[in-house]
Amino acid sequence: MLCASHAVAQSEPSALIDQQHCMFCHTNDAPLLAPSFQQIASRYRDDPQAQAMLEHKLRAGGRAHWGDMAMPMPAERGGALSPEDAHVLVEWVLRH
């Protein structure tokens, strides 16, 4: 049986994460300039509307809403993000 962190690491969309510069602001397990992927997953994994909302936020950008972390999600990171790529990234984050 694989531990959850190993399963997440194995299915990490590394090229997409690098292309979109996700790790400039996020880490897997600790807040940096933005919440960690684990924090995002904890907040949203049981919300049935979260997948669509987060995919939209990745593609369009959006204001910050994490208390003292005032970094908004930029609309342009590493280039245009397709709906399919946004879906892959959000699914990956919510598995943390």
UniProtKB/TrEMBL annotation:
SUPFAM superfamilies in the record: Cytochrome c
* Source superkingdom: Bacteria
Which residues bind heme c per the record?
A: C22, H26, M73
An MF annotation (GO) of this entry: iron ion binding
Describe the PTM: Binds 1 heme c group covalently per subunit.
Question: Is Heme found in the keyword set?
Answer: yes
To which species is this protein native? Caballeronia concitans
Q: Where is the Cytochrome c domain?
A: 7-96
For the keyword Ribonucleoprotein, the answer is no
Q: What name is this protein filed under?
A: Cytochrome c family protein
What is one Pfam family matched by this protein?
A: Cytochrom_C
Task: Name the keywords, alphabetized.
Answer: Electron transport, Heme, Iron, Metal-binding, Transport
Q: What Gene3D superfamilies does the annotation carry?
A: Cytochrome c-like domain (1.10.760.10)
Which InterPro entries would you find in this protein's record?
A: Cyt_c-like_dom (IPR009056), Cyt_c-like_dom_sf (IPR036909), Cyt_c_ID (IPR002324)
